[in-house]
Amino acid sequence: MLPTTLRCPAVGRSMFAGVAFSLASSMLPMAAQTPSDSGNAARISQVSSARQTPTVLAIRRAAPAVVNIHGQKTVRATAAGMAGATGPDSFRQVNGMGTGVVIDPRGYVITNFHVVEDVDDILVTLDNGQTTSAKLIASRIRNDLALIKVDVDRPLPTIPRGTSSDLMVGESVIAIGNAFGYVHTSTQGIVSALHRDVPVNEAQEYHDLIQISAGINPGNSGGPLLNIDGDMIGVNVAVRVGAQQIAFAIPMDQVVEIVTEMIDEHNEKRLVTGLRTNGGPRDGDGVTVANVSASSPAARDGLMPGDRVVRVGSQPVDDRLDFALAMLNATPGDSLELAIEREGRQMDLAMRTEQVSGAVAGGVEELAWSLIGIQARPVADSTIRRLNTRMRTKYRGGLYIANVRPGSPADQQGISTGDVLLGIHGWQTSNMADLAGILEHPDMQRGPKAKFYIVRREQTLFGHLQIANQADNAARR
Asked: pTM of the entire structure?
């Protein structure tokens, strides 16, 4: 049984927890921050090629996209075991730091959630020494990942993204981070093991981590793990306290998948597009339209399942993360210029986004309860993938049935809590926006019997719902 002595080396779980609080001041001194010296370029050109090893070239390639995150948070003094605490309501401001990686030139940065958790004012120091503010855009606490937006007026260098799918035990890796405040500290080691599950405490456990021997210290959290080519293959997250050369990183493919889901969820709260896409985690995997919701802007403006999106505005799209990032700057009412490939031909389309309102903003829950008799929530992509693996199917999403109203159409057709609703009347129900589009579609308002599909105990079932007429239902209320 692994003791719960793991500490995450950054703001939330090492600067603000554990041994960091043995200092009476609870303040970690910041090392002098020196911006990268562009004047080195001329001298580098004169260095012998023997000294410019693959490690040197890898760090040089990736380092400009590594940023240093610092700020303050308020902690309860007694809970932290601080010297000088006077009672249960004693609070103190403490400094902390971590690392981030620029993934989009507009200033979007990936880091660990615990680096920015409860930080009052997130400050970011860029590769040129400039310090600016940032705001939290999206986060996933259980996966300890966050996306922040840095306030910049120039394009930032971005990290070269690699894949964690082909990592080999024993291959060389490099970590870059804000170790103890010494910015852009680089350490080297090897991949010690793959697919490690690591418990932090009784409430949290990391899954499928990369174990490495590179030195990871407080402040490294959120920084990149590189392969010898300088491609980012993971996010450094934790060390084993008391051990030597045992550290862990979240695999890059997992990071890309989770961050993409985070951004999609953030966008769905702001925008209605009606698009659902497929694509892999690596550059070049592409983005294909998997589903177009009924009555959606995507359907209205001519997008079709199977279309491959290659550009949004002026931004090339090579994978789903690119597409999600491209949508971040869109506002309701914007007309997005999309370049797509369809049946071997490239064509341009304009899709006008809409503001989340009405059923999608929350009324869809009431509508689904009154017209069908269900309470539903989106199923995680990871759950759908597990179903597809076990059932050898290709479902793209679904809605988990959390409750069924007695006597409702759903109840009459035998739909039960725990079922996963896959589609109604030929349209997929991958998310709540899909369900809203279906329930508001003119065909549905005429009250036909609509065929539905569900998954129950890894079996696909179907039936026919007599959906209540909205006007009649409103009159009854």
From this structure: 0.69
Any idea which of 25-34, 49-58, 221-230, 373-382 has the lowest mean pLDDT? Answer: 25-34
Active-site residue, from 127, 144, 231, 319: 144
Question: Is 30's pLDDT higher than 80?
Answer: no
Instruction: Please name the fold of domain 359-476.
Output: Pdz3 Domain (2.30.42)
The reply to whether domains 270-355 and 359-476 share a CATH topology is: yes
* 139 noted as active-site residue: no
Per the annotation, the verdict on 114 as an active-site residue is: yes
Active-site residue flag, 381: no
Question: Can you tell me which residue has the tokens 């080999």?
Answer: 168
Q: What dotted CATH number matches 1-268?
A: 2.40.10.120
Catalytic residue among 14, 139, 186, 221: 221
Q: Is residue 216 a contact partner of residue 8, using CB atoms and an 8 Å limit?
A: no
Q: Exactly one of 114, 184, 186, 253 is catalytic; name it.
A: 114
Structure confidence by residue, pLDDT tens digits, 135-167: 999 998 888 999 999 999 999 999 999 999 999
Mean pLDDT for the chain? 80
CATH classification number, 270-355, choose in 2.30.42.10, 3.40.50.10540, 3.60.21.10, 2.60.220.30: 2.30.42.10
